[in-house]
């Protein structure tokens, strides 16, 4: 009897262990990072630069070198407000997106003062094919990326709203840019920004594993005197060119769309994902 009891307990422990392993493996399988940048070229990306037609990579603004997406202005005489965006070809709605970035070198001649060490990730954005030739920015929610000047405080993963607005604490916010509570990152260090976007309900910004901002109901600017605009359930993701050289690496996403119709499950998955603090290697 004792031996049988021991065998039964052993068998039960194996079953429980197998279930735990399966659940863990299943979670990992459905929450793996998918690389949007292959480290070699700009396949699956589209380019739109102000004053130029779609996919005209003026002056080789966007290129891939040393395994990074590089935004450079070596072939520019002057910036001349030629703002650029590099769009991933597929739109997303419910996801956790991440990019690691660093500012390098000097701002190009003619770049606006506010664009010093300034770039961004545009989410819930407009299709680049719908942009006019002279349009500066896609209608989108901008997660503004800023670098420090070596002495002053300057937050990153801020929020700007080209053609959009949002709600915070139940109030519609029309202020164009709103600062996060992040630390300042000086020099040419790598910084990891993560963006949790849950359709048209909630967006949260993280920097080096720390939450720095959250807001609700991203929406287009209202029309015909309305207070609220059309809610943005999703859209394109793009990386900015705003006159200061910047490198991007590890452009990646976890698509959470499969959980969008199950709020309780989505909440559990998000909680587990954000329990891990992911830091960039320098």
Automatic annotation (TrEMBL):
One of its GO terms (molecular function) is hydrolase activity. Residues 32-253 form the 3-keto-alpha-glucoside-1,2-lyase/3-keto-2-hydroxy-glucal hydratase domain. This is 3-keto-alpha-glucoside-1,2-lyase/3-keto-2-hydroxy-glucal hydratase domain-containing protein. It comes from the Bacteria. Pfam families: 3keto-disac_hyd (PF06439). It comes from Arenibacter nanhaiticus.
């Amino acid at each position: 009897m004792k031996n049988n009891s021991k065998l039964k307990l052993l068998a039960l422990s194996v079953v429980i262990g197998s279930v735990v392993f399966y659940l863990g493996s299943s979670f990992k399988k459905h929450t793996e990072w998918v690389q949007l940048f292959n480290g070699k070229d700009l396949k699956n990306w589209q380019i739109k630069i102000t004053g130029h037609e779609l996919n005209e990579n003026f002056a080789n603004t966007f290129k891939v070198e040393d395994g990074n997406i590089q935004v450079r202005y070596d072939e520019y005489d002057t910036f001349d407000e030629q703002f650029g965006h590099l769009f991933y070809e597929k739109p997303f709605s419910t996801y956790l997106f991440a990019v690691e970035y660093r500012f390098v070198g000097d701002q190009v001649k003619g770049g606006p003062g506010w664009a010093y060490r300034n770039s961004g990730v545009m989410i819930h954005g407009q299709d680049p094919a719908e942009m006019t030739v002279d349009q500066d920015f896609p209608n989108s929610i901008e997660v503004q990326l800023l670098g420090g000047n070596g002495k002053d405080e300057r937050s990153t993963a801020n929020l700007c709203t080209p053609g959009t607005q949002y709600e915070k604490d139940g109030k519609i916010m029309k202020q164009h840019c709103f600062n996060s509570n992040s630390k300042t990152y000086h020099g040419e260090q790598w910084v990891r920004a993560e963006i949790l976007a849950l359709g048209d309900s909630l967006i949260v910004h993280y920097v080096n594993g720390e939450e720095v901002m959250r807001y609700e109901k991203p929406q287009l600017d209202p029309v015909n005197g309305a207070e609220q605009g059309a809610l943005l359930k999703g859209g394109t993701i793009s990386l900015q060119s705003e006159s200061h050289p910047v490198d991007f690496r590890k452009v990646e996403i976890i698509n959470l769309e499969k959980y969008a119709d199950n709020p309780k499950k989505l909440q559990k998955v998000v909680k587990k994902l954000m329990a891990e603090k992911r830091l960039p290697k320098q």
